Amino acid sequence: MSSAKRRRWHIPASFTARTTFNPIRSIVDRMKISPNPEKQMIALSIGDPSVFGNLDPCNEMVDSVVNCIKKAKHNGYSPSTGYVKTREAIAAEHSYPLSPLTYKDVVLACGCSGALELALDVLLNPGDNVLLPKPGFSIYQTISISRGHEVRHYNLLPERSWEVDIDHLESLVDDRTRAIVVNNPSNPCGSVYTKEHLEAILEGRLSFFLFFSYHYCFKALAQNCDLQCFWVYHKLCTSFLPSFLFPEKVFPGYKFYPLAQLSENVPILTCGGISKGYLVPGWRLGWVIIHDKHGAFESEVRQGLVAMSQQILGPNTLIQGALPDILAKTPQSYFENTVKVIKKNAEICYEALLRIPELKPVMPCGAMYMMVSSV
Questions:
Q1: Measuring CA to CA, how many Å separate 150 from each of 144, 188, 222, 305?
Q2: Alpha carbon 319 to chain centroid distance?
Q3: To 5 degrees, how large is the angle CA 105–CA 114–CA 270?
């Protein structure tokens, strides 16, 4: 057949593929810049603590992974929700006296981004809306728009260390609202909310909502929504909590309050991972933790999380196998030193930016990010 008569194929991409857009990754992945060869480039756009080699995993973490490899007991498939011993270790680390957990409350995922996918997918249908912080981490919008969710943004207040504009938040809620993301400690703002501010978010008209939580939190209408909390930074950002294996810290002078401790009635999905707190984002292990005192998730959401976890047959088994030792053996001094380094770097950047008349930086309270406005 001549080339002129050959059939021309056009295969359209799916709705999900056509509507998936991560603005950060799109810019960074396509960036082709030739820096001044006489100067070392400092990339300020990369939220990866491992890139420059000044924040490495500690020996105890590396040894845990090496020992797991040598034992050769974690080379096959795990259960889709993860090994029981790994889920038990995570449950023990995130239990509170008033909110105890078991391994059945933990579902493992491929990094915290994978946990976010599970949490959003299990709660929202196409046409439902989710309320996201502005400024906020772009992955929420990337996931939701690709699923046909409506995205609405509520304002954060820079003059109040990026607290939630609660009046604006309430004004966005309607009968199709299924989740509200409350990001604390914040990515990218670096803020750490007070107990009083978190309680204010939970009260009033918004008290009729359920939540997600991740140090970003989703909050939604009680009859059809939930809250997610994401704990990527919990080893860097949380305060002293005796129920954790190790005391947690934000920058000195601040204290972190997990929403699971502050709410008596709201069911919470906490999404987290080892990427930032342990400085190993490439190890790709995350989790969804179910805080559900009154059984709101029992009939459908728990089973839904299990069903969706079966799409990928579980995350990295080597890191799963090593995680109990990583949690148990990583010394508290490792986290303390990491906090000191990040805080010192933040202070250097803040003081330098203050000297530029056109810029107004906001000093972070407990994360590896800083927001800067132009004046």
A1: 7, 22, 19, 22
A2: 18
A3: 35
Dist. CA 275–CA 339, nearest whole Å? 15
**Closest by Cα among 361, 334, 368, 111 to 250:** 368
Residue 186 is encoded by which pair of tokens? Answer: 């914040």
- 3-state DSSP helix/strand/coil percent for the chain, to nearest 5? 40, 15, 45
CA distances from 135 to 45, 138, 155, 305, 320 (A): 15, 9, 7, 28, 33
Give the Cα separation of 164 and 213 in Å (integer): 15
Q: Could you tell me how many residues make up the chain?
A: 375
Which residue has 């890139």 as its token pair? 51
Which amino acid is it at 28?
V
Rounded Cα–Cα distance for residues 107 and 269 (Å): 10
Q: How far apart are alpha carbons 68 and 85 in whole angstroms?
A: 14
Q: ω before 133 within 30° of 0 (cis)? A: no
261 against 146, higher pLDDT:
146
Instruction: List residues bridging with 372 in a β-sheet.
Output: 361
Distances (CA, A) of 10 to 7, 13, 15, 21, 75: 10, 10, 15, 22, 41
CB 218 within 8 A of CB 181: yes
Question: Is the model more confident about 352 or about 23?
Answer: 352
Share above pLDDT 70 across residues of the chain, in percent, rounded to a whole number:
82
The pLDDT mean for the chain works out to 82
Q: 26-49, pLDDT tens digit by residue?
A: 666 666 667 778 877 766 666 777
| Distance between CA atoms of residues 252 and 255, nearest Å | 8
Question: What's the CA angle centered on 98, arms 92 and 99, to 5 degrees?
Answer: 50
Residue 330 identity (one-letter amino acid) = T
Are the C-beta atoms of residues 297 and 212 closer than 8 Å to each other?
no
DSSP label of 33: -
Distance, CA of 115 to CA of 321 (rounded, Å): 18
192 vs 208: CA distance, rounded Å: 24
- Which residues are CB-neighbours of 17 under 8 A, at least 6 positions away? 146
What tokens does 189 get?
């703002």
